[in-house]
Specification:
The structure is a single chain. This protein has 365 residues and is of the alpha+beta class. The protein has a domain of 141 residues: PurM-like, N-terminal domain (60s Ribosomal Protein L30, Chain: A), CATH 3.30.1330.10. Helix content is 30%, strand content 26%. Strands 7, 10, 11, 12, 13, 14, 15 and 16 form an eight-stranded mixed sheet that branches. A six-stranded mixed sheet has the order 1-2-3-6-4-5. It has a two-stranded antiparallel ribbon with strand order 8-9. It binds adenosine-5'-diphosphate and magnesium ion.
Length: 365
């Protein structure tokens, strides 16, 4: 049994019980949806980050970890087409981290991102543990009945993705090869960077020590990829636009990887899909480094996780209403929803093949 089989079982157990009619959507989507008032629905999302499993402690500046802890949950609210409002965060810390500047740095990164989206931290808990463990909760809202679910895609809908794919997984590979973020920065948007950490700079090692003549360009690409992994940018603006304008028929955020998350969306909706390989927005830094660092842009775009882009479907009748960019972030048209019998496929020119769900799993079968 893998983690998704277990979640399915848990979901059957909960839906077999008598529950409140105010639960619009329980286990199974990016966030749970509750009927809050005659005109508003509440969204709640929870995410766990465990050291050495979900992040490498020695490669992750605490300020960036604080940013990421909030970013992953903001991404889930965005994936429901919602507006984030409030948050809670619980942390387990080793004594050594407590005594160092960890907690101050963590919350500086967390609160800077919260401020950017007008989110208020309203509670949490603290405890001691052997490794750093973080439980992040974000609460958001949508107009009644407007939450964008994973389960409502229809055959003929067109498939889109925000931003670019594969960069975060490439960043993780580089970290595992020994690369370290040079100056721990939090990306304020896609085009600007802001110094955000007073920690001493760690020397770049191994993978960052390029020996080719284009050292500087490679080093810059490596740093950008490390930030894609360590400092993800949740697509909050796109989520709000797609939800409020009723543009998306279904949506999920790409946390496990495009292949796995597309399978989740297709399974929940009871549909198939065809993706055009040539239309995938490959991360330009992965393309720049490919061949020299054993990074395969297409494989990373299809199966690499943690880009926290939004994968969504649009009915043909609404295509003309789609904005080109929101908050400076563009979208790519990558395929089409099909009948379920077609399965989930990738097409490149005249070739077509099955797309297996090969993204991240904590527990495999
Ligand atoms: P995401 O990647 O969007 O955060 P997950 O893959 O973590 O989603 O979870 C998928 C669904 O399973 C979500 O609806 C989540 O709330 C639910 N889920 C995950 N773990 C548990 C758990 N321990 N108890 C109840 N529901 C869970
Ligand atoms: Mg999600």
């Amino acid at each position: 049994m893998n983690e998704f089989d277990f979640i399915r079982q848990l979901r059957e157990q909960t839906s077999a019980r008598k529950t409140s009619t105010r639960i619009v959507c329980g286990i199974g989507d990016d966030a749970a949806v509750f009927r809050q008032s005659p005109d508003r629905d509440l969204l709640i999302s929870s995410d766990l980050l465990v050291e050495s499993v979900d992040f490498h402690g020695e490669a992750t500046p605490p300020r960036l970890l604080g940013h990421k802890a909030l970013a992953v949950s903001l991404s889930d609210i965005a994936a429901m087409g919602g507006r984030p409002l409030w948050s809670m965060v619980s942390i387990g810390l080793p004594q050594s981290a407590w005594a160092s500047g960890f907690k101050e740095e963590f919350f500086a990164g967390y609160l800077a991102l919260a401020d950017r989206f007008g989110v208020s931290l309203t509670g949490g808990d603290l405890s001691q543990s052997q490794h750093v463990v973080i439980d992040s909760i974000v609460i958001g809202e949508v107009d009644k009945g407007r939450a964008v679910l994973r389960s409502t895609a229809q055959s003929g809908d067109q498939i889109f993705v925000t931003g670019s794919l594969g960069g975060a997984a490439a960043g993780l590979k580089l970290i595992e090869l020994g690369a370290r973020v040079r100056s721990p920065t939090v990306r304020e948007g896609d085009d600007s960077q802001q110094a955000a950490d007073g920690r001493p700079q760690e020397p770049a090692r191994d993978a960052s020590q390029a020996s080719e003549p284009n050292d500087t360009a490679d080093d810059e690409a490596i740093q950008q990829l490390l930030l894609r992994q360590l400092s993800p940018q949740p697509r909050v603006g796109w989520g709000i636009v797609l939800g409020e304008e009723q543009l998306a028929t279904s949506m999920i955020d790409i946390s496990d990887g495009l292949s796995s998350d597309l399978h989740h969306l297709c399974d929940e909706s009871g549909v198939g899909a065809v993706i055009e390989a040539a239309s995938l927005p490959l991360d330009e830094n992965v393309v720049h480094l490919c061949g020299r660092r054993a990074l395969d842009p297409l494989a990373l775009a299809l199966h690499g996780g943690e880009d926290f882009e939004l994968l969504f479907t649009v009915s043909p009748k609404n295509l003309s209403r789609l904005p080109k960019r929101v908050d400076g972030v563009s979208i790519s048209h990558i395929g089409e929803i099909t009948e379920p019998s077609r399965g989930v496929r990738v097409r490149e020119k005249s070739h077509e093949w099955d797309l297996p769900a090969r993204g991240f799993e904590h527990f495999s079968g």
